[in-house]
Design goal:
Elements (H helix, E strand, L loop, with lengths): L2 E3 L2 E15 L13 E7 L2 E5 L10 E10 L5 E9 L5 E10 L10 E5 L12 E12 L5 E13 L10 E8 L7 E2 L10 E10 L14 H6 L1 E8 L8 E9 L8 E7 L17 E13 L6 H8 L13 H8 L3 H14 L3 H15 L12 H13 L1 H18 L16 H20 L7 H17 L6 H20 L13 H19 L11 H7 L5 H14 L15 E10 L11 E9 L2 E5 L2 H5 L6 E4 L5 E4 L10 E5 L4 E5 L3 H14 L9 E2 L4 E2 L2 E2 L13 E2 L14 H14 L1 H16 L16 H32 L12 H10 L8
Antiparallel strand pairs: 1-2, 2-5, 2-17, 3-4, 3-6, 6-7, 8-17, 9-10, 9-16, 10-13, 11-12, 11-14, 14-15, 18-19, 18-24, 19-20, 20-21, 22-23, 23-24, 25-28, 26-27
Length: 840
């Protein structure tokens, strides 16, 4: 989700690898082991949870998590929880990284010490205050000062134990501390409106200008206003602290007036008295990205240069803009991700990959090494398969992968690792059955292979066959090196990375999947001596089960099928593809506005045919009829629901011909994911609405427009979906901005590449060592391309610099958008307000 800022959109995303924890404190008692899991939180909102690692004080998770961040946040936090035998969860410790500090750890494996978890330190939200100082003349003629404190409103307060009934306590801090004055309690809201004023008598002068008063600095520091937010509780343990602010009265200045928003802060000394070293540590790898995207016209020069790379007349392709990006990036993957998404968006991915693949094949001397390296071609095809082939993987592998992860059949065939209770022959038979079934579902899935993948494989096959005409198998190995080695085998090995499973499998299942992946990879390779591919003798012996010609024939038939360009149409597939499932809360139709029975937890499931929910997951699995089934063609729109409708966060609506189904997701990331995928799957519906109601229909009228007819047309334009001919949610301008950022980061290498072009033009002898890392087939054409790249990057750099400086001038600290205490933003504008442009 983008945040609009005067024509500029800001996108936030985070990619996290949760590695392992170590030295977790032992459980008190005879059994000292713990069952631990880790959560990822935006401030206090949980957006991801790992699986539970049982009976360990050094749990290894090895889980990856990526999400687009749909809102502003102050901390990215990680909590370690322990689940006891009574299934109660208790927090052990946390890691909280401030937003402004995320770049310190960018892409680095880092060990973080776990910190104590305290309710006093878990704060979020902001408060709007207005302070006004006035003089009061007493009957005796003395001048006193009166401080008027107005508490206007709060936003985004935390919800504690499912409720938020907040009130504010206001007090004056100083030599003679005043008694706290309290606002009224606002029930069932975390965005309370107060508009209450409190007065404090001040017996010392508060105008801190030397011209009027002479007040020592130490006295000034002691005078402050304290505002604490509390959650009113009916429990005997008392009210719960939500956060507070301390406002030094020096902010009043000469005018005696101060009006500002403040971020709530933790209570001082609110943490538990626990030694940090006693809580253990957590290894994380965090990549936080913030893209500032201008309107489309700003990217025209660079975008045209990039798209020109896919034109067949660009010769050689090594002189193209896209290939140049791959040459200067430290990792080919850095360049491949935005390039593939950009070319997919503009329908040019097939000619682009065909061009770079053809050039790589012509540079390859041995057909046995074709596409074996981590080249730009390989990384681009990998990324294309991940994007275009995700549904293909879902329908092909997910059912059998789910079964393997659920059944836990023993499949260990290494005699050294075999458990005493296991039988080697039984394990071999279990593994052989799994391999056979997966092999069959793969080799019979050719009709489902996406057209764009078929077109790319056709190009690879033709280039390889033309280059190595003597080798009859190269037309197969060129394709199998991708579809088996880089697509199916990795998905079997790590199903969580391909969205086939929510978490990394347990060690025993992971071992089973490793053995299957190795065998499938070898079956698909069509190697001359397959047993020799295995270093382990037990794997070579196991492979003899599959040493029949029928397996090789099935692989070749499958490869022939998927490398036939543009032959298959996915729309003819009738098998339902499971796209997403999980628990959410839905509102019953026709109920009153309030009441616990209105909202019920249900198991939701989305396929490309229908959107359903059951009472429980077990009932859905058993095949019982759904409580509700909505055909995809009946989904007219999917939109967010305003929070004020039911005083509930993360709600959205699935609009049908008769009514809307109101649903609450578990967090903001999950809500966005459900909205996105429901929108995409229903985007081809010709009956889609153009307008909708952003609020609910309650008590006889729509809350948004106050119209009384429940069939009244919507009052707000729908956000809509993608055009029917675009299958992937790709923002071309965002990808071009990312490519600009890469070119900007590697500007030194671009300059060095220009120097290499000049050197090769003048001296056409052996390649100098300092320039040997670049592929330069045509120095003159490459130099021209580099000159155009540098010019486009410089222009965008100037536009970014101007934007940052203008933003710095316009920004008002203390505004609703940038409250006082927003160190992340203050740090950003301070660092980014001045930026130099590159000159060549």
């Amino acid at each position: 989700m983008a945040v609009e800022e005067e024509g500029l959109r800001v996108f936030q995303s985070v990619k996290i690898k949760i590695g392992e924890a170590k030295n977790i404190p032992p459980y008190p008692g005879p059994n000292k082991m713990r069952d631990c899991y880790c959560t990822v939180n935006l401030d206090q909102e949980e957006v991801f949870r790992t699986k539970i690692i049982e009976k360990s004080l050094c749990p290894f998770y090895g889980e990856d998590f990526y999400c687009e961040i749909p809102r502003s946040f102050r901390h990215l936090s990680f909590y370690i929880f322990d689940r006891d035998v009574f299934r109660r969860d208790s927090s052990i410790g946390k890691v909280a990284v401030k937003k402004e500090d995320l770049q310190k750890y960018h892409g680095k494996d880092t060990w973080f010490q776990l910190q104590p978890v305290s309710a006093d330190s878990e704060v979020q939200g902001k408060v709007h205050l207005e302070l006004r100082l006035s003089e009061v003349i007493t009957d005796s003629g003395a001048i006193n000062h009166k401080l008027a404190t107005r508490v206007l409103e709060c936003q985004g307060l935390p919800i504690v134990n499912g409720q938020c009934d907040p009130y504010a306590a206001v007090s004056l801090l100083g030599p003679s501390r005043s008694e706290a004055k309290k606002t009224k309690v606002k029930r069932k809201t975390n965005n309370p409106q107060y508009e209450e004023v409190f007065y404090f008598e001040v017996t010392r002068p508060l105008s801190y200008t030397k011209r009027q008063f002479d007040v020592e600095e130490e006295d000034v520091d002691k005078l402050a206003l304290r505002v604490d937010l509390w959650n009113a509780s009916n429990l005997k343990f008392g009210d719960e602290f939500l956060g507070g602010v301390r406002v030094p009265l020096r902010v009043l200045g000469q005018a005696g007036v101060h009006d500002a928003w403040y971020f709530l802060q933790p209570r001082e000394n609110g943490g538990k008295s626990v030694k940090v070293e006693e809580l253990g540590s957590l290894r994380l790898n965090i990549v936080y990205t913030e893209d500032h995207v201008f309107p489309s016209e700003h990217y025209t020069p660079l975008r045209e240069l990039l798209l020109h790379s896919a034109n067949v007349e660009v010769c050689p392709v090594s002189a193209s803009t896209a290939h140049t990006l791959g040459e200067v990036c430290r990792e080919k993957q850095e360049a491949a991700i935005p390039l593939v998404r950009l070319f997919l968006h503009y329908g040019k991915i097939v000619p682009f990959i065909s061009a770079i693949a053809h050039a790589e094949v012509n540079r390859t001397q041995d057909p046995n090494t074709i596409f074996r390296g981590n080249s730009l071609t390989s990384k681009c095809i990998d990324e294309t398969m991940k994007l275009a082939g995700m549904h293909y993987l879902q329908v092909t592998l997910k059912p059998i992968i789910d079964e393997i992860c659920t059944d836990h059949k023993p499949c260990e065939i290494d005699p050294v690792k075999l458990k005493e209770s296991e039988n080697l022959e039984t394990n071999r038979e279990n593994l052989r059955q799994y391999v056979d079934r997966i092999f069959n579902v793969i080799t019979t899935s050719g009709v489902r292979c996406p057209t764009v993948m078929c077109d790319i494989f056709f190009s690879l096959r033709e280039s390889a066959a033309t280059r190595f005409q003597v080798d009859q198998d190269v037309r197969y190995t060129a394709v199998s090196s991708f579809i088996f080695l880089r697509f199916f085998a990795p998905a079997i090995l790590s199903p969580n990375l391909f969205h086939l499973r929510p978490h990394h499998p347990d060690p025993a299942t992971s071992r089973t999947l490793t053995l299957i992946s190795k065998t499938i990879q070898t079956l698909g390779s069509l190697a001359k001596s397959k047993s020799a591919n295995f270093k382990e003798s037990y794997m070579a012996a196991f492979y003899e089960y599959f040493n029949e010609q029928k397996y090789a024939d099935a692989v070749k038939n499958f490869l022939d099928l998927i490398s036939t360009s543009g032959k298959w149409d996915q729309k003819s597939i009738e098998t339902p593809i499971m796209l997403k499932e999980g628990f959410m809360i839905k509102r019953a139709q026709g109920r009153n506005r309030f009441g616990m029975k209105n909202f019920k937890k249900r198991w939701f499931r989305l396929t490309n045919h229908e959107f359903t929910y059951h009472k429980t997951k077990a009932l859905q699995t058993s095949g019982e009829s759904a409580l509700c089934s909505i055909p995809i063609e009946n989904i007219l729109a999917v939109e967010r629901l305003e929070e004020e409708s039911f005083k509930m966060k993360n709600m959205f609506q699935v609009i049908q011909p008769e009514r809307a189904l109101y649903i609450q997701a578990n967090n903001c990331v999950e809500a966005r994911d459900w909205i996105d995928i429901l929108t995409k799957v229903s985007q081809c519906n010709r009956k889609r609405l153009s307008t909708y109601h952003p609020s609910a229909y309650l008590n006889g009228h729509w809350l948004c427009c106050k119209l009384s007819a429940d069939t009244a047309p919507g009052c707000t334009p729908c956000t809509g979906g993608l055009p029917a001919n675009i299958q992937l949610d790709v923002d071309g301008d965002r990808e071009t901005e990312r490519i600009y950022s890469l070119f900007s980061t590697y500007m030194t290498k671009l300059i060095k590449m220009q120097e290499a072009c000049g050197s090769k033009s003048v001296y056409d002898g052996p390649e100098q060592e300092e320039y040997s890392s670049f592929v330069i087939d045509d120095p003159q054409e490459t130099y021209k391309t580099l000159k155009l790249i540098v010019s486009a990057v410089q222009t965008l750099e100037q536009q970014h610099t101007k934007y940052k400086r203008d933003k710095f001038k316009k920004t008002k600290i203390g505004s609703q958008e940038h409250p006082i205490g927003d160190k992340s933003f203050q740090c950003y504008i301070r660092q980014q307000s001045e930026s130099s442009t590159y000159s060549i």
